[in-house]
Amino acid sequence: MDQRKVFINPYNNLLELEEPIYPLVDVEKPNTFRNLFPYDEIPKIAFNDRIVPHHFPDEIFITDTTFRDGQQSRAPYTTEQIVTMYDYFHRLGGPKGIIRQCEFFLYSKKDRDAVYKCMERGYKFPEVTSWIRASKKDFELVKEIGMKETGILVSCSDYHIFYKMKMTRREAMNHYLTIVRQCLETGISPRCHLEDITRSDIHGFVIPFCRELMKLSKEYNMPVKIRACDTMGYGVNFPGAVIPRSVQGIIYGLMAHAEVPSEWLEWHGHNDFYKAVVNSTTAWLYGAAGVNCSLFGIGERTGNTPLEAMVIEYAQLKGTLDGMEPTVITELAEYYEKEIGYHIPSRTPFVGKNFNITRAGIHADGLLKN
């Protein structure tokens, strides 16, 4: 502690002690947090009452995964359907591009055709980006199409590193850093998707890895974005909850200890425990500028954070829609039902036919009287 610097925090003008540096902990056996995630019980939410401060960014935005994660639980969209929805997202995001990016698979001809057609639209927003695995073969697809930015799957829990990838933490980190460096060397901005972060060793792997990513960013003078992926939906927003389940704890750690800038930080939520929306909002409140969503929450298993929900959350937090066109949400719902044939449950917030209709007698009586 004697070697750590004391400095003035420009946000609150208080003296602070420099944050500790966390080195990679290259364990021999995987840490699967069985104390929090027992196989024969419901997962546990533990607390240590360590509170982190709010850090609401100057600018917040929404990114979309409808054409990537949103296609993992339903029949693939046609190229025409993708382009039509992309046009809707452009209108919905407004002139400021609050819907900042859309991400695409590149593996099939249909996927690539959709990418080319969306790029031909010439919109500044949503920016067309891709998603690849951390492999040289996948990276060649990104170069071939001429993407400016791509997401890269960098699984960070020991479940993935040890059991799926059959690597040690150091081997996984070096493998990921090699692909990221290749992106930077060709002028492509990488967006690292920290898969399964809510079951990961935050201080022992995630933060040391992200510090290395920030070093690469400085070396190449290019952004290296971080997407924190709550793959299993285990994240919680309760103050004082322990990491790796604490959303605000993860965001704080990435910003304070790994020095990831707010504008490069994004949250990707899943709804397995009904927390996709509140966790995404929490990520905004504690420093992540971006939240990743899918139209109507359609995505793998129980789905992702609904895009339309975060449009409304944005307006509530900022006090303005900032030029977004919320009527497009209704148009999207109508298009989805009529053209794609998907039935939206009638009580779905904001898009269901009955979301703002009341039939309870006491409510009807109130309407008649007022």
Textual characterization of the structure:
This protein is of the alpha/beta class and 370 residues long. It has a single domain, classed as TIM Barrel, CATH 3.20.20.70. 36% of the residues lie in helices and 13% in strands. The chain has eleven helices and ten strands. An eight-stranded parallel barrel has the order 3-4-5-6-7-8-9-10, surrounded by seven helices. A two-stranded antiparallel sheet has the order 1-2. Strand 7, helix 6 (202-220) and strand 8 (225-229) form a beta-alpha-beta unit. Helix 1 (79-93) packs parallel to helix 2 and helix 1 packs antiparallel against helix 10. The longest helix is centred in the middle third of the chain and has 19 residues, at 202-220. It is globular, with a radius of gyration of 21 Å.
Give the helices and strands, then pairings.
Elements: E1 6-8, E2 15-17, E3 61-64, H1 79-93, E4 99-104, H2 109-120, E5 127-133, H3 136-145, E6 149-153, H4 158-164, H5 169-185, E7 189-194, H6 202-220, E8 225-229, H7 247-256, E9 265-268, H8 276-285, E10 290-293, H9 307-318, H10 327-340, H11 361-369
Parallel strand pairs: 3-4, 3-10, 4-5, 5-6, 6-7, 7-8, 8-9, 9-10
Antiparallel strand pairs: 1-2
Helix pairs in contact: 1-2, 1-10, 5-6
